[in-house]
Amino acid sequence: MNDKYRALRNGLAVLGVLTLAVGAYMGLSWAPAEREMGEVYRIIYVHVPAMWMALLAVTLNLVCCISYLFKASWGKDALAEASAEVAVLFGGFGLVLGSIWAKPTWGVWWDWDPRLTSMSVMLVAYLGYLAMRKFVEDPEKRAVWSAVVGIIAYVDIPIVWFSVKWWRTLHQVQSTPKTVDADMTLALRVNAFAFLFLMAFFVWNRYRIARAQRAAEVALPEALPTSAGHTSTGPVPGVLS
Amino acid sequence: MRRRGLLSTAWVLLRKDLLLEWRTRARLNALLVFALSTLLLFSFAVGPDTRLLERNAGGYLWLALLFASVLSLGESFRVEAENECLDGLRLAPADPRALFLAKAAGNTLLLVGLGTVLFPIMVALYSAKLAMGMGDFLLVLTLGCMSLSAPGTVYSAIANHARARDVLLPLLLFPLVVPALLAATKATSLVLQGDPMNQLGSWLGLLAGFNLMYWGLGFLLFPRVVED
Amino acid sequence: MNSVPALVLDDVSRRYGRRWALARLSYSLPAGRSLLLTGHNGSGKTTLLRVTATALSPTAGRVSVMGMDAVRERESVRRNVALLSHASFLYEDLSAEQNLLLLAELLGLDAAKDRTHTLLERVGLTRRSDNPVRHFSAGMRKRLAIARLLMKAPKLALLDEPFGELDPAAIDAMERVIHELKTSGTTVILATHLVEQGKSLCEERLHLHDGRRVDA
User: Fold this and answer.
1) Which of residues 131-190 of C touch A (CB under 8 A)?
2) What is the mean pLDDT of residues B85-100?
3) What residue in C sits closest to B78 (Cα-Cα)?
4) pLDDT at A32
5) What residues does C63 pair with on adjacent strands?
6) Which of A115, A130, A169, C143 lies deepest, with the highest CB count within 10 Å?
7) Where in the sequence is the domain holding B94, given as residue range(s)?
8) The dihedral of CA B21, B25, B26, B31: what is its sign?
9) Residue A226: per-residue pLDDT
10) Are the C-beta atoms of A226 and A220 separated by less than 8 Å?
11) Host H or E run for residue C65
């Protein structure tokens, strides 16, 4: 596999870690304490970006899924797999942080808050998506079916959110950056960028692994040369584009 | 020879499925007994607190239906896998979208029937009362069963050709139907216990929206699932 | 119309997981000729028939059936082609009659009931027409599957090991059916181990080995 982007990928990781260090300093000491919650609120500087990245990653997954159904390619399938897995990683991380935040704030680990609850439902749905990928051996069928499952799962996210919100109309309304201190907003943004760099690094690496797995799964026997104009509506054997 | 339209094909396929269900009544009975024992088990899990049971009656009914739906949805494509009947239908040729409509409608009918049978038993077991009309209950039941059946049909077709199909179907289906389950449970509770705040409409609206979304998506995506 | 080949395979490949069942196969079957497909188990005969029937799509390459593209004009191909497969396509819990009637209704045939009864009589299952397929022997299932194939009155009939599980008398009957199909203008593609029987029925022959064409 060509690896001309290796420096760029590693650059992303370095950039992510550096930004995260700056973000941690800003979040932990530079930004002022919150009026009601005091110092405890500072967990949002990692909790919120993690959730954002999970949502961003499943959106990337959706784009890959739709695009795959229109025009199949192993690259899209690999990127779909990578983004779903990273989404579950960030989502799980964000949920744990949210739970830790809930304990001192509301006195319980889990309070069926609409955002946390819909996030956890989303997480389970994408765990199902990943499990399905493991249970289907035929690479083409797996790619098509997971594209279908990915679309169906994504469409559910807003519906889950609405239903849980109606079910429990509790807790603070979503605080947009306008209603909070400008310094807090800046600290949150720096952290969000740090997470974005790290997520891109993870997705990219996971994508490379997935591509390599696909390449191994659809390896051609030597007797069938890969050359010559194969045309097909499906993925072309051996050509990983 | 005249070509059959989409709905006409779906109707032929639905009649076939109903005929199959009728000829294998033993399976239907097993499904009913399964759902009944689930209802019974909830009372044991919660304890003999009649007030608690009454308040949660709607939720238990929907959990029983959800668990039963996994069995009936799985069965509806197991029948097609035997002797590769699904290929026989595809090559007949029957439009895969008609197949989706027939399967989803068939599962809805089955679950509505099951819910109708379970209802009086639930009333007796949990001493639930019906505050609103039977018509409201049937409306909620139908919308709820429809919203289990549409995504369930797509996922069952997938799970049936995967390894560990019995695990995969609930794994995919349960998180997906959370909003439908919430709405159906809330709406059923309102129908049973009364609706002083006029909330029933919103929950029915949510169920209708869910149905619109997933019957539409299923109709569009199902051909990609079953065609090679 | 007769000049359009019955089947054209243009560099066709089909993969199952990592294995190539068909590897860059090219072949053209002239109109009005019947084809005998031979080869060992796993040589790609069944895959070729299933790709031709549009049950599978080719991983690469183009398949054209009587001038129709097997991927883009899938529906039209399906209307003109019938496949007799290893699997019977029969519902175990429906009766013989109900199984045939289902296909007749899907095809939108006029007088579906009459046609069903005629076919049941033709394959000698009239007396068992109300029995569920679950109680049928292998030979009876094969006969019912033949009736299913005849119901479609296909222009191209794909027969995958039609003589399997049949006793000598039934093999003769099957040969007669194939003859009748041919005289009624149906092109037949026959995959079988019984090369002698096949040779007497088909004008062309294609021998497959590891998904590739071998000139015998």
Assistant:
1) none
2) 95
3) C91
4) 80
5) C9
6) C143
7) 2-227
8) positive
9) 43
10) yes
11) strand C60-65
ipTM: 0.92
- What's the number of domains chain A is made of? 1
Nearest chain C Cα distance for residue A219, angstroms: 6
Cβ within 8 Å, pair C18-A218: yes
Q: Is A229 within the bounds of a domain? A: no
Strand partners, C157: C82, C188
Are residues C181 and C162 in contact, defined by beta-carbon separation less than 8 angstroms?
no
Residue A228 falls inside a structural domain:
no
Residues of chain C contacting residue A231, judged by C-beta atoms under 8 Å apart = 60-62
Q: What is the mean pLDDT of residues B116-129?
A: 90
Per-residue confidence at B8, pLDDT binned at 50, 70, 90? very high
DSSP annotation string for A38-83:
BGGGGGHHHHHHHHHHHHHHHHHHHHHHHHHHHS--HHHHHHHHHH
Of the candidates C27, C63, C62, C52, which has an alpha carbon nearest to the alpha carbon of residue C155? C52
Query: Which candidate from C53, C55, C90 shows the least CB-CB separation from B83?
Result: C90
Q: Nearest CA of chain B to the CA of C215: how many Å?
A: 30
* Residue in chain C nearest A235 by alpha carbon: C59
Structurally, what CATH architecture does the domain formed by C7-214 represent? 3-Layer(aba) Sandwich (3.40)
Tell me the pairing of strands C187-191 and C19-29: unpaired
Closest CA to B180 of B205, B153, B216, B201: B205
- Note the pLDDT tens digit of each residue in B123-173: 988 888 888 889 999 999 999 999 999 999 999 999 998 888 889 999 999
Q: Per-residue confidence at C48, pLDDT binned at 50, 70, 90? A: very high
Number of neighbouring beta carbons within 10 Å of residue C110: 9
SS3 assignment, position C95: strand
DSSP at B95: -
Q: Could you tell me the residue range of the domain that residue A147 belongs to? A: 10-30+41-173+181-219
Spatial contact of C197 and C203, defined as CB atoms under 8 Å apart: no
C2 confidence band (pLDDT: 50, 70, 90): low
Mean pLDDT across chain C, nearest whole number? 92
Residue A231 to residue C13, Cβ atoms within 8 A: no
- Which stretches in chain A have pLDDT values below 70? 1-2, 169-180, 219-241
Q: Give the mean model confidence (pLDDT) for residues C200-216.
A: 88
Measure Cα distances from A12 to A16, B97, C176 in Å.
Answer: 6, 45, 73
Burial B91-129 (b: 16+ CB within 10 A, else e): bbbbbbbbbbbbbbbbbbbbbbbbbeebbebbbebbebe
pLDDT of A104 reads: 86
A52 and A87 Cβ atoms separated by less than 8 Å: no
pLDDT, position C158: 96
Tens of pLDDT, residues C80-103: 999 999 999 999 999 999 999 999
Q: Tell which of C11, C12, C14, C18 to mutate to test the A interface (max A CBs under 10 Å).
A: C18
Residue C156 contacts residue C65 (beta carbons within 8 Å): yes
DSSP A29: I
Q: Would you state the structure tokens that stand for residue B202, as one six-digit string? A: 């919103």
A:131-190 residues touching chain C, CB 8 A cutoff = 137-140
